[in-house]
Design goal:
The protein has 489 residues and is α/β, with parallel strands linked by helices. It has 18 helices and 13 strands. The strands form four sheets. Strands 1, 2, 3, 4, 5, 6 and 9 form a seven-stranded mixed β-sheet that branches. Strands 7-8 form a two-stranded antiparallel ribbon. Strands 10-11 form a two-stranded antiparallel sheet. α11 packs across α14 and α12 packs antiparallel against α13.
Amino acid sequence: MTIQKTNKIRLRWIYISADTLAALISWLIFFSFRKIHEGFALSQLVDILLSDINFLYGLFFIPLFWLLLNTLTNYYRLIYHKSRMQDITKTFVVAFIGTLILFFLLVLDDYIGNYIDYYVYFIALFLSYFPVDIIFRLILTSSVNNRIHQRKLGFNTLLIGNGPKAAQIYQHLLNEKRSSGNLLVGYIALGSTKHDAANSNKLSKENGFPKDGNFPCLGQIEDIENILKIYKIEEVLIITEKDENQLLGPILAQLIVNHLIIKIAPDTESILLGAVHSYSVFNEPFILLSYTSMPIWQKCIKRFWELIFCVIAGIFLAPILIYTAWRVKKSSPGPIFYVQERLGLHSKPFHIYKFRSMYINAEKDTPLLANDSDQRVTPFGKIMRKYRLDELPQLYNVIIGNMALVGPRPEREYFVKQIAKIAPHYRLLFNVKPGITSWGETQYGYAENVPQMIERLKYDLIYMENISLLTDFKILLYTIAVIFRGEGK
């Protein structure tokens, strides 16, 4: 039976259209109920609905409201990895929150005859939306899941590993009666290089991979990035043996692709430590990795308060900014601001702005990092760096959107290449927007060389796995403490 690849965009628009229709129907039901509850006759409804401007406005704004709420809760993101139970629970929560918001916007200020009407309208608002929307969603999700289980629908999946463990899981996938949708296009050979690909293929066949070429070896670790693009991979299964665990860093460093689902077959220690999520494919436990764990609604809030913070900070710090600029100009010949290219989100270069703290031509050929006794730093530059005043112009970087207040510190491409040679998983940091301050900056401080950068990396990786508004707030508090203690350098 031929498996068809999912069309994510088309399927996503079907869900959006269904939610829009559900919102329109729910608004019609609620508005009609309210008019009847106010004493209007059923025969008057059509004329009332067509003549009431509030009802007509609602036909436009109510669907937009529900679509926005569902988007902020990531409902339309993993469109083909849904379950009916998840649909029910998530729709219930969103419906309750949305009902609460609409109640305060549409009902609370209206004239009512009795306070009990508040409870009646709240329940009516909830019941007019939740049952209608969940019916549409269950029909769609059931249809998609059935097609996936019957192997009529699938999504391109890359298997990384060619040992006995990988072969066993591959055979499980082939023998499953109900497909999980993983359309395996091929595998990556581990423990081999391009020069001994023949030995790798021989080992794969000995471990149980097919010998007829239906499941080809697509390359080695260094080929992963190209394979992801060529085969339009949507999901990756990483299955390593115990003696191959050291390869996880180089593997993960190449899996920086938006919306790529990464699952790692765990060892016993990972299960005991609670690293395995309650997610499984073809009855096998997997660790599900996600480097965009901050929900969209938190990202929107974070971006909003960052803009507010930067504008207010710019106003209140204006005297300090002007004084610092004047002192920089007086301290040594050269420009006030120092502009340097750094790598940001998804490895895209951008220009970072700082108050100049070094003499001009401090770097002639090879880029160098500053240290405690750096003679390139001006006398006033040392004071600025101690209290992090040189970082203040980066508020502009935050406003224009290429930096955040909190996030891993951006580095120059020259140092990124050096770090990546030793710690390839450094590139995972490009999944989040760089920041003015970071967990690594507050806990470790400035790095004076590449080994220190690698040592600081663990703090940034911990931040990525625990990223949230609360974590950002804690880091900002730590940063303020560091500034007042004058621990910068």
